[in-house]
Design a protein that fits this description.
- The protein contains 7 helices and 16 strands.
- The chain is α/β, with parallel strands linked by helices.
- Helix 3 crosses helix 6.
- The chain is elongated, with a radius of gyration of 22 Å.
């Protein structure tokens, strides 16, 4: 929920509990691609690979307070409000802005695999705010009380035209000439602050858009709405190379990255994957797992090795498919998760199979080329973990995971 830098250069609400647990508990027989079957190898229940959320705020731990954050399932109704200012009056139609951001609906459907229907209703009136644009604090980094005041004022102005109580969240859009409204932070209500009530309903979630939306495009709504689901920022708040941890993987890192589909770990965290789609190894042993590309529906999506109280190694298959059609290199993406690491400090680190690969103008981070191919292995020596890619096909990979 910090200013997004540009690239340099409780368990789930909806779950197939019975089937998921049953599948996760059984041994599996996985045939290798292009070869005969292998012996049945043990998996642990997926619950043994769940990581806690020590910070209690946005993060990679699974426990999410769905009083403070919104559930990422079903139809989410968003009112799109258009605000202008005494020093920056709108000179064009609200239709142009609504059309520019409208693809966010289909993008959310793709990212969530149909789990979320983001229903956006434009309130087609310019709402004149009471103060000049610079007075709202976006230029220097807006505080929660400042942002709440901004959201409340916009909501009260919109209530003249529409029943705000019908909506789960708001997207607040300024005109192009409001240069002081610079960036697009998510709004998540603070239970320790006074309630923000508009039209008799508490407004808990939203995005206050700024001029950076013209750089990021409509995917900025996917990223910022992800914060209202409890997902953290995966880029660095402090390092000069802000995208070195995950590169172009995951929209919660570089919004305009080459492979913006959420990591499978995050899909699991917010309920877009069932437990049956997670292969877990917590106790010592070996598991051979057929991974189906995370960008499509069905199949086992992630192989997780629990390595500590708040840590895990994760492998998933990534392909040039769906929102990841521009991926730099297909294969098995392996990353380490630490749920005790806060947003912006690197809760996810992608492991790089090809650190010396040459970069391009669109694939300009070393980790953009991180995917592992058949015959390559990742070794986490400290945790006694090895992940080897055995075989690949057009829709996935087979990996062998060992924990000593």
């Amino acid at each position: 929920m910090r200013t997004l830098p540009r690239r340099l250069g409780s368990r789930r609400a909806a779950r197939l509990t019975g089937l998921a647990c049953a599948v996760a508990l059984v041994s599996v027989l996985v045939p290798l691609l292009g070869s005969g079957p292998v012996e049945a190898l043990k998996r642990d229940p997926s619950s043994e690979c769940v990581l806690p959320n020590p910070g209690g705020w946005i993060g990679e731990g699974e426990t999410t307070d769905y009083n403070q954050f919104q559930r990422p399932q079903g139809t989410l109704k968003a009112a799109m409000l258009f605000v202008d200012f005494p020093d920056a009056p709108a000179a064009d139609s609200t239709d142009d802005y609504a059309t520019f951001l409208a693809p966010a609906h289909n993008l959310m459907t793709q990212f969530s695999g149909g789990a979320v229907d983001l229903e956006i209703t434009p309130v087609k009136h310019w709402l004149r705010m009471s103060q000049d644009s610079a007075s709202y604090g976006f230029q220097r980094g807006i505080s929660w009380p400042q942002q709440a005041k901004y959201v409340k004022e916009a909501g009260e102005l919109a209530a003249r035209y529409v029943d705000m109580a019908k909506y789960d969240m708001v997207y607040i859009v300024p005109p192009k000439n409001a240069k002081e409204i610079t960036f697009s932070p998510a709004y998540v209500f603070n239970p320790k602050q006074p309630n923000l009530v508009v039209d008799g309903k508490e407004m808990k979630w939203g995005v206050t858009l700024g001029q950076d939306m013209y750089f990021w495009g409509p995917k900025v709504l996917v990223h910022e709405t992800g914060h209202t689901f409890g997902l953290p920022d995966l880029y660095s708040f402090t390092d000069q190379d802000v995208h070195h941890w995950v590169g172009g993987f995951d929209v919660m890192g570089d919004i305009n990255g080459d492979a913006p589909h959420h990591f499978g770990w995050e899909d699991w965290k917010i309920g877009w994957l069932a437990d049956s789609q997670v292969a877990c190894l917590n106790s010592p042993g070996t598991a051979k797992v057929r991974l189906k590309e995370v960008e499509s529906l069905g199949g086992t999506k992630i192989a997780v090795v629990r390595t500590g109280d708040t840590t895990a190694d994760v492998a998933e298959s990534r392909r040039a498919y769906g929102v990841d059609k521009g991926i730099c290199k297909s294969g098995v993406v392996i990353y380490q998760v630490d749920s005790s690491t806060v947003s912006g400090n690197g809760p996810v680190h992608v492991m790089n199979s090809s650190p010396d690969a040459p970069t391009t103008s669109t694939c300009d981070e070393a980790v953009d080329w991180a995917a592992y191919e058949p015959g390559q292995s990742f070794h986490d020596t400290a945790a006694g973990v090895t992940i080897t890619v055995d075989a690949s096909s057009s829709s996935g990979d087979v990996v062998t995971v060992t924990k000593s």
